[in-house]
Design goal:
binds carboxymethyl coenzyme *A, three-stranded antiparallel β-sheet, mainly alpha, globular
Amino acid sequence: MSEKYPFSKGLAGVPAAETVLSYIDGERGKLYYLGIPIEEWAESSTFEEVALALLLRRLPKREELKMFNAALRSARELPPEVVDFILDMPLDSHPMTVLRSVVSLLEAYDYDAKLDDLEAKFRISLRLIARFPTVVAYFDRARKGLELVPPDPTLGHAANFLYMLKGERPTDYEARVMDVALILHADHGMNASTFASMVVASTLSDMYSAITAGIGALKGPLHGGANERVLRMFREIDSPEKAEEYVLAKLARKERVMGFGHRVYKAYDPRARILKRYAEELTKRSEYYQIALKVEEVMIREKGQKGIFPNVDFYSGLVYNGLGIDTDLFTPIFAIARVAGWTAHVLEYLEDNRIFRPRAVYKGEIDKRYTPIDER
Ligand code: CMC
């Protein structure tokens, strides 16, 4: 049937909301949070400051950031019943499955979830940001049969996550690398997981349901799940000498090379540029880094003119690998950062909410007769 509205597959190019939070200039390969280039955030800020700035939609004052930091640190621990639930999860569950399930469960233990006002939703946002690292680290320790390491309130968000994961304090350099990775992943316009969270929130459902939807969307290999696949691809390629043949064969089969391409960027993703520097520092002499360089070279040669370049997921896995983190934790780390963006977008949208309710182009017939089951 003809529709009076234009149709764009995958909603490509269709604005779904207004925001002041982040802006991508896809042609020039630029990303801004609150108008400030991502390079400046990565150079001068912390993940905690980025998260609060996104929630407030402005740079926080010193006192505000101090209070936010203290509140995050005191909100990190999980209700004991939720810890038991994590310990009971099948050991071979993907950490994203655990994160999604636990975030859904947390609603039942949060009185604020019963309240409708934006202040309660702000408090929940803070709690979610504080607790994502705890959920991921607890499950990782539990599945390895290791003692859980409770959060350390003397450590910042990134350092504490690494500490809970490994049971020892990270070096300042390791903590800074993780902090920058979290800053770079905190927000990214109207991406699929942010949109998923906003769609759920727009029905005036609760914050936990909205964020659970975001985690589910991020898990997919076309979105946040790509970083894990990139490292698996490096493993499959095995040596830099085999990289070119591998990429060309993949392209000949019309398959996607993970960690490349983007709906909005038609230039080099600025986040990938920053992560590549850290990947080089951490893994310069490793086979994986050499494989990555070769894959990038061949992909840009073959696909650069079509605007396909490395995206954030191409080098992030190498960075996490260089920090000694398991491959299936890469996407959960993306979630640990992006929960700041999800919650900020939901709060922004709810200030002037309208339910998301697009249309489908109906391709079937109409006015058909119902055939009784025996006559079909
Ligand atoms: N490898 C090979 N060809 C590609 C790739 C790729 N990674 N990405 C896009 N193309 C080609 C695609 O085959 C198509 O070619 P043609 O016009 O000849 O059919 C053209 O580029 C346009 O692709 P598209 O699928 O229409 O682009 P999209 O905007 O719908 O998809 C994407 C964007 C990110 C899903 C896609 O680029 C992709 O699948 N990339 C690999 C997965 C990945 O790295 N995802 C992480 C994205 S960045 C972090 C995040 O947001 O989560």
